[in-house]
Thiosulfate ABC transporter, substrate-binding protein
Amino acid sequence: MAVNLLKKNSLALVASLLLAGHVQATELLNSSYDVSRELFAALNPPFEQQWAKDNGGDKLTIKQSHAGSSNRRWRFYRA
């Protein structure tokens, strides 16, 4: 009985470790003012590549949201 329980627990542990180690996609939202749109458009691709290299191949997608200060302020107030 104890051996069966040990086998089941060991199998469950191995399965959870295998599932926890899988590669998953990560998504970030880069939210800033209009004036920095080009800067982040240039910085994001190298950052995504470095992320994949440092995180075992995890794919990082960076979405961008750029607007003037008043648009952004009202969007946050309404949320």
The beta strands are 26-33, 60-67.
